[in-house]
Amino acid sequence: MALTPEVIIEEIDANEELSLERILLEQKTYRFNFETGRLTSELISGLEAVRQFVMMALRIPRYAHSIYSADTGNELGEMLSDPDTTPEYKMMEIERLVTEAIIYDERINRVHSFEIRHMEDAFHVSFIVDTAAGELGFEEVLSA
């Protein structure tokens, strides 16, 4: 009679190489419905999960919610609402702050090809995110 519970360990083919990138891309997370602001019961992984991560990072102010780590979110709000900075300075900082908000994720290799346009009180931003599973394109409107 054993004192510990029986644990079933999945056997892995010795010829199959598990890369960190593959493991990270296969991790599942719950889909977030951005229209309702709620999690759904649907599980997603791969590029869909990375897209959701980027969208969340661009919508969550860093340090605003104790439930998130200091790595989560962005610092765009304070910079965009500063009346003493010029639109040119803000355009320069947007690229840096967007990159800092998402590059720490291990699934993301590079953030590049920024195009930023200042229109009235908002900034129209497009950029590309290179991941282990492919490229993702984003277009966002940022305002204070």
TrEMBL record:
Protein name: Phage portal protein
Top-level taxon in the UniProt lineage: Bacteria
InterPro entries: Sheath_initiator
